[in-house]
Amino acid sequence: MRSIWNGAISFGLVSIPIKLVNATESHSISFRQIHTEDGGRIRYRKFCDLEDREVSAAEIGKGYEDADGSIVAITDDDLASLPLPTAKTIEIVAFVPADRIDPLQMDAAYYLAAGGAAAAKPYTLLREALKRSNKVAIAKYALRGRERLGMLRVVEDAIAMHALLWPDEVRAPEGVAPETDVTVNDKELDLADALMNTLGEVELTDLHDEYREALEEVLAAKATGDTPPSLPEHTGAGKVLDLMAALEKSVKDAKETRTEEAEVKPLHPQKKTARTPKTPEPKKSTSTKRTTKKATPPKKSTASTKKTTAKKTATPPKKTTPRRKSA
Predict the structure, then answer these.
(1) Taking the model in full, what pTM does it have?
(2) pLDDT per residue over 293-304, tens digit each?
(3) Compositional bias of type Low complexity: which residue ranges (predicted)?
(4) Number of domains within the chain
(5) CATH of residue 125
């Protein structure tokens, strides 16, 4: 990564040579201004209003417009010689808990790379000290013509710095919240909690820019002369009149979506194999065999019953014969 600023971190009496590199990158699609009649590029040319002629980039410098309209020229040497210790130094002024920093203050993010082998030891010392303290470092530095506030924290094995807005640059949320007095009851809060729990969490790495992907499809289609994909018909939800009904429906829809996702999962071979050992079919077949064995004894009792019945049947003729002789 190309460095955009070279300097040093001032940590008490310790000086750590570093290079500042961008920690983020933009994937947004940019457009050019064109002449709609023929597609020609619209370009901006820079003119000097005194000489009324176009000037090159080498002739352009910086200037400050004073209150009376006069221009004060400022050169790069003037900026480099500013009487500030932060002109080429990231000066750490304090260490505070991370939750002391309002996310509204956070701006661009940078990585601080060690500037050479000699910086490895003090760089590692600062990194490990930040890790053990569970704090972030607040620093001041100068970049692009102004002094800025920064926050240093550890990201994996590197030190990152977030540019911070000065406290007076953050606006108070005046006139933003609803001015109408509204009462929210416990049942509505319970439904809102249920909706939050049903939606669950998400891995941020699974999220992607669907707008950019759709725009890329449109650009690819127009570049080849094809018809761009049409926008699906949008069914507006209309104005919400019943908050409770809307919450209940949202919870129901979220649960159905989760159920559908859960039903799809067992179709994967790995999931199915994992559940097979839990099937209790062998135990059922074993119990059936045991029941059959236990059912065998009644056959013996049936046979003995037949023998007993036969003996009882044979007995009456013996008793009948003597009665006939007596007659």
Answers:
(1) 0.61
(2) 444 444 444 444
(3) 298-318
(4) 2
(5) 2.40.290.10
